[in-house]
Amino acid sequence: MSPVHSILFALAASTVSTFAIPILQPTDVLRLDAHGSFQLSVFSDLHFGEAQDTLWGPEQDINSAKVITSVLNAEPNAALAILNGDLITGENTFLHNSTKYLDSVVAPLVKHGMSWASTYGNHDSDFNLSREGIFAEESKYPLSRTRKMVSASDAGVSNYYLPVYGNASAVPEFLLWFFDSRGGNYFQQKSAAGNSVPQPNWVAQSVVNWFTQTRSALEKNHNRIIPSVAFVHIPVNAMAAFQATGVNKKREPGINDDNPLAQQGSASGQGDVSGTTFSYNGQDIPFMQALLDTKGLKAVFSGHDHGDDWCFRWTSKLKGMNLTGNGIDLCFDRRSGYGGYGSWTRGSRQVVLQKDKEEVETWVRMEDGSVSGKVTLNGTYGQDSYPAVRS
Ligand SMILES: *[C@@H]1O[C@H](CO)[C@@H](O)[C@H](O)[C@H]1NC(C)=O
Ligand SMILES: *[C@@H]1O[C@H](CO)[C@@H](O)[C@H](O)[C@H]1NC(C)=O
Ligand SMILES: *[C@@H]1O[C@H](CO)[C@@H](O)[C@H](O)[C@H]1NC(C)=O
Ligand SMILES: *[C@@H]1O[C@H](CO)[C@@H](O)[C@H](O)[C@H]1NC(C)=O
Ligand SMILES: *[C@@H]1O[C@H](CO)[C@@H](O)[C@H](O)[C@H]1NC(C)=O
């Protein structure tokens, strides 16, 4: 609990016997529902704050907010919203009010009484916008569960985990991991030539170290492996390596229009900030290795590539890689926002975790209320045949 939350909590506790005050409740721990389920609604690539000097800029932010509201109305069991990166389009924002867009991003969640947890994306850092600034703005909301658990200067911000409990509070039933894949440009920095200064766009080694140590400590403290899922904005190289082998539209149903996709360490492809100069050189190998070494980690969810929303099971040594998959599922979210590139129907990936069950249910809830790409990430995912989705 942050000091602000403690104060609000104390305030709420001291006044609760006299009258109910309509202040935001402090965030309590996350719990499974009465059926032992936990549903997440993932909103990815919202891209607020574009072209505010035009009519369509503010209008697309209104439309993005409507996506959040209509999805949450259609998914009454959702217990937590995930904002999986690119909340704001930093290159379009002004220094004096760039973080204010965060208030518009979370307004539909606050109205719904829905708590949320964020990762930040490459567009959340630019000359006029910093992820630290977004984090400070988010932290004003008791409904925000976003944290910063790694203080190394190169770590980025949104690196943390959240436990999900059953009825007992001693041992979490699930862990939700959040990683910062950084990217974009450094805040208020220009090169000698007057250009923006790009920030590395992969999960930092300092974060990998924190992850492996924290995971081991949790396992040791609880004397068991806690099942988990993870969120990171930019996908890892295994997704690109798999895509190159061919995404099967029945076995991995979903749109596959960003091909080749943009991944960690690579600035080629769509969705990257112009002027970024990184090229792929295995920068995400330590992170992928750490994911593979994490017992109980079921799936990793990424955004960034607006035109892809499939899930694949990484079971083998894919061409061009030295790492061998262990059966982990790597999934794309569905792009939710009206900002950014592409005109695919907006939607939100839903993820259902179930106590004592290996399998994860997931589908995309579209803005228009329809459901797309519903699959069960169970023992035969990758072999089962599903209806292909319309693109
Ligand atoms: C928690 O306890 C309640 C009340 O006893 C019960 O209805 C519910 O099923 C329990 N939930 C879980 C996940 O065990
Ligand atoms: C940053 O914001 C300032 C004013 O707040 C504006 O004058 C400037 O053009 C912006 N710079 C960039 C690169 O967007
Ligand atoms: C930020 O400032 C710009 C220019 O002054 C304005 O057009 C825009 O609406 C402001 N945005 C917010 C979220 O306050
Ligand atoms: C795979 O391992 C070999 C031998 O260590 C190394 O030369 C090569 O660069 C590695 N390839 C990748 C893609 O990591
Ligand atoms: C996995 O789920 C699919 C779709 O519901 C089903 O057809 C398949 O039989 C399941 N596999 C296992 C091992 O339960």
From TrEMBL:
Residues 42-307 form the Calcineurin-like phosphoesterase domain. One of its GO terms (molecular function) is hydrolase activity, acting on ester bonds. SUPFAM superfamilies: Metallo-dependent phosphatases (SSF56300). InterPro entries: Calcineurin-like_PHP, Metallo-depent_PP-like. Residues 261-275 have a biased composition (Polar residues). The keyword Isomerase does not apply. Keywords: Signal. Gene3D superfamilies: 3.60.21.10. CDD domains: MPP_Dcr2 (cd07383). Residues 1-20 form the signal peptide. GO terms for cellular component: cytoplasm. Residues 249-275 are annotated as: Disordered. This is Calcineurin-like phosphoesterase domain-containing protein. It comes from Aureobasidium subglaciale (strain EXF-2481).
